């Protein structure tokens, strides 16, 4: 079953064509990586999918519904969650409080004006479950802003997960991390994909991570699709090596 | 601050407020001063619902404060001498204006939001200033007084009994702050906190940020309107300065002075502001420069406000 279908989307900023006629089809349960050199338009492409801004042309279908003009918060409510290249969390709140907010939103409580002990217990149980999943239980009551980068990133991913999304968009989940942290985040992403059968699209710079995790890879260069295929196909593709892998090596 | 400390602080504040008429006189004050503190504190705490707990600065809250004051005054003067109805009409007028203005400006952020709230406030100010036949213009709206409240079983003569009026005001203060406190502890309140902490993350958690800011603005204006209606009743008088931008600025000063990250901060700020104003203005006409200086010192050295200082002392 097709979960996400992006058809010929483009995005111009003045005379710059940041994303040029890109199409992408993601099946339910798939883990798709989007790679490409700096400035290839990967994050802009993500912003189009998640509704950060609309495309100049093209359409985006999510679960068969046209969401091209749907605002970001509604896309989230429809089941699409994302993280950012620069972690977006609530740094002055504790990990627990960071998770509590999406858990309540996912429970349809965002307009609920009354506190409720019984409901708070259910929320707390779900938060504990998520804390365990992210390996954050021991740090639950620390302010997120005081935690190491890897824990902040794990918090952001788990917050997105708290929304019970059917599609998770991860923008460079291991950016700026050391080996151990990269390993931990990779394990977490793998756990969500394999264990929870979650459909994931991720942008990544670290080739080890990509070839390790992805079912299929799409390569962007200068805003356009350069190649698409399995990790083996992409690894063997000469154009990709010339444009991207060659530079890294 | 842990839950026990918070409870102690609440008990202390309510004890002080409930016993105010007894110690205010002994300290050389007078009842109206206490009533004024409570009313302006309600206004500043309402502003702070938006400023401190949603992260959105309105510099035009006096507009709704003043509109409600006119609404209450005109109800008594032109319609019917019923104090409770006057308060209700005042709140409805202020809230209706806030719903419209909030809907228009909810997409603006930061300094743009603040500037446009000032601009809308000034529109209402000039209407009140120019429309002599209805508002009394620059001379203000006089020739009316607050009326005794007839509850059937008892008649509360707030017109002549200042202490009774204080307690009626305090009851409205309790209602307003109580509702705001409950809202802030609800899931809805936490979405506002989320917007304050990180708007982008809030949006990508599925919170329609503009709509929630609008709601927060309107809720905040409901209670600033309540304060405005009570303020008209306290003075038996309304004039256009009630809704001018410098009155809005005073609310912001009270909130920041007391500490906008704490629920009771604006109450402390309002108390300091009103007492300083009362004392210094009896000594010199330039009382505003002293309040300004005090404000600058607090912001420079204690950015978390007066309650922020006390909290730091109390914290282990």
Verbal overview:
The complex is a heterodimer of chains A (249) and B (316). Chain A is α/β, with parallel strands linked by helices and 249 residues long. Chain A has 2 domains: 1-79 and 166-249, Rossmann fold, CATH 3.40.50; 90-164, no CATH class. Helix content of chain A is 41%, strand content 25%. Chain A is built from 9 helices and 10 strands. Chain A has helices at residues 42-50, 72-78, 95-106, 117-133, 149-162, 179-196, 207-213, 231-236, 238-248; strands spanning 2-13, 16-27, 31-35, 57-62, 65-66, 80-82, 167-171, 199-203, 216-221, 224-229. In chain A, the strands form 2 sheets. Chain A has a 6-stranded mixed sheet, sandwiched between helices. In chain A, strand 4 and strand 5 form a beta hairpin. The radius of gyration of chain A is 18 Å and the shape is globular. Chain A starts with a strand and ends with a helix. With 316 residues, chain B is mostly helical. Chain B has a single domain (3-314), classed as ABC transporter involved in vitamin B12 uptake, BtuC, CATH 1.10.3470. In chain B, 75% of the residues lie in helices and 1% in strands. Chain B has 15 helices and 2 strands. Chain B has helices at residues 3-18, 20-26, 31-54, 62-79, 83-105, 110-130, 132-135, 162-184, 187-197, 199-203, 209-235, 245-258, 265-283, 287-301, 305-314, and strands spanning 149-150, 155-156. In chain B, a hairpin with a 4-residue loop joins strand 1 and strand 2. The termini of chain B are close together. The model of chain B has no long low-confidence stretch (mean pLDDT 92).
């Amino acid at each position: 079953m097709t979960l996400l279908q992006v058809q010929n989307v483009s995005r111009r900023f003045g005379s710059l064509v940041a994303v040029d006629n890109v199409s992408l089809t993601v099946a339910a349960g798939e883990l798709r990586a989007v790679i490409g050199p700096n400035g290839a338009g990967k994050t802009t492409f993500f912003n189009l999918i998640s509704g950060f801004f609309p495309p100049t042309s093209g359409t985006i279908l999510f679960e068969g519904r046209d969401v091209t003009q749907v605002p970001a918060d509604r896309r989230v409510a429809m089941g699409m969650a994302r993280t950012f290249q620069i972690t977006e969390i609530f740094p002055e709140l504790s990990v627990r409080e960071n998770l509590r907010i999406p858990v309540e939103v996912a429970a349809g409580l965002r307009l609920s004006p009354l506190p409720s002990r019984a409901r708070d217990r259910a929320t707390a149980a779900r938060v504990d479950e998520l804390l365990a999943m992210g390996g954050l239980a021991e740090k639950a009551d620390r302010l997120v802003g005081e935690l190491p980068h890897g824990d902040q990133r794990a918090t952001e991913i788990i917050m997105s997960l708290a929304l019970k999304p059917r599609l998770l968009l991860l923008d460079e989940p291991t950016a700026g991390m050391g080996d151990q942290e990269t390993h931990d985040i990779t394990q977490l992403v793998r756990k969500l994909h394999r264990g929870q059968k979650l459909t994931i699209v991720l942008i990544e710079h670290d080739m080890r991570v990509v070839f390790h995790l992805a079912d299929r890879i799409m390569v962007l260069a200068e805003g356009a699709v350069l190649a698409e295929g399995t990790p083996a196909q992409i690894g063997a593709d000469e154009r990709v090596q010339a444009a991207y892998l060659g530079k890294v090596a | 601050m842990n839950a026990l400390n918070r409870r102690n602080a609440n008990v202390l504040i309510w004890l002080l407020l409930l016993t105010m008429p007894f110690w205010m006189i002994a300290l050389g004050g007078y009842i109206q001063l206490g009533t004024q503190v409570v009313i302006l504190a309600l206004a500043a705490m309402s502003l702070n619902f938006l400023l401190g707990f949603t992260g959105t600065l309105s510099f035009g809250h006096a507009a709704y404060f003043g509109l409600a004051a006119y609404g209450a005054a005109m109800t008594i003067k032109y319609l019917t001498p019923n104090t409770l109805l006057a308060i209700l009409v005042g709140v409805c007028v202020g809230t209706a204006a806030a719903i419209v203005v909030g809907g228009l400006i909810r997409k603006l952020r930061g300094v743009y939001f603040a500037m446009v709230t000032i601009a809308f406030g000034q529109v209402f100010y000039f209407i009140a200033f120019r429309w002599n036949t209805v508002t009394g213009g620059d001379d203000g709206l006089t020739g009316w007084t607050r009326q005794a409240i007839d509850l059937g079983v008892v008649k509360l003569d707030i017109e002549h009994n200042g202490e009774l009026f204080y307690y009626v005001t305090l009851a409205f203060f309790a209602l307003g702050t109580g509702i705001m406190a409950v809202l802030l502890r609800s899931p809805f309140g936490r979405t506002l906190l989320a917007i304050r902490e990180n708007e982008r993350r809030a949006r990508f958690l599925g919170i329609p940020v503009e709509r929630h800011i609008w709601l927060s603005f309107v809720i905040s204006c409901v209670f600033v309107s309540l304060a405005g209606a009570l303020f008209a009743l306290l003075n038996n008088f309304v004039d256009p300065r009630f809704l001018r931008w410098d009155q809005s600025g005073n609310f912001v000063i009270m909130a920041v002075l007391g500490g906008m990250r704490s629920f009771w901060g604006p109450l402390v700020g309002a108390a300091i502001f009103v007492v300083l104003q009362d004392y210094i203005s009896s000594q010199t006409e330039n009382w505003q420069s002293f309040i300004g200086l005090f404000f600058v010192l607090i912001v420079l050295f204690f950015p978390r406000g007066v309650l922020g200082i006390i909290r730091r002392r109390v914290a282990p």
